[in-house]
Amino acid sequence: MNQSETIFDKEFESQLMPRRRDLMPKWLTTYMWAVMVFGFIMLCYAVSLATAFDTNDTMAYDPRYATAFRTGTNIGQFIPGILCMLMGVVVWLERRRAIRFNLGIGLLWLAFIIFMVLSAGIRGLFVGIMFPLFVPYWIGLFGIQKRWEKEAVRGKARF
User: Any idea where the domains of the chain sit in the sequence?
Assistant: First the structure.
């Protein structure tokens, strides 16, 4: 009977659950904003390239495939910027699975780099030239993942 009294006691309910953003150190918050700004810059660059289509690939000018090739190229230009923006936005919005999403994007990017190196040789590493810049961000997020998912809440700290 003593145990049920402590569970329903006012002291038990008055404990604050920390906000997810408060778990992040200042450098990680700054990194999060830098990731979002970088994603926005990548999107702006993709928009500027969408109107100017220039390639040496003969398939782009083949009447049977030109429309599909150009559409695929235009869509493909936006994907890296969108994913980069999402990496920061889901953390900023304090989603519960935001850290897992970020680590998943990192693993997909690493798999894509490996695929490019195997298919295009050493010049395939150009795809991963920005990868090392995100590693500290992912390491910082991984360090707070357990508290982020289990202990903290989204929005204002709850009573």
Answer: 20-150
Give the mean pLDDT of 90-114: 92
Structure tokens at 9: 């006691």
CA 56 to chain centroid: 32
Q: How far apart are CA 149 and CA 146, in angstroms?
A: 5
Backbone angles phi, psi at 55, to 5 degrees: -150, 160
Regarding pTM above 0.85, the answer is no
Per the document, the length of the chain is: 159
pLDDT, tens digit (0-9, with 9 covering 90-100), for 121-139: 888 788 788 888 899 999 9
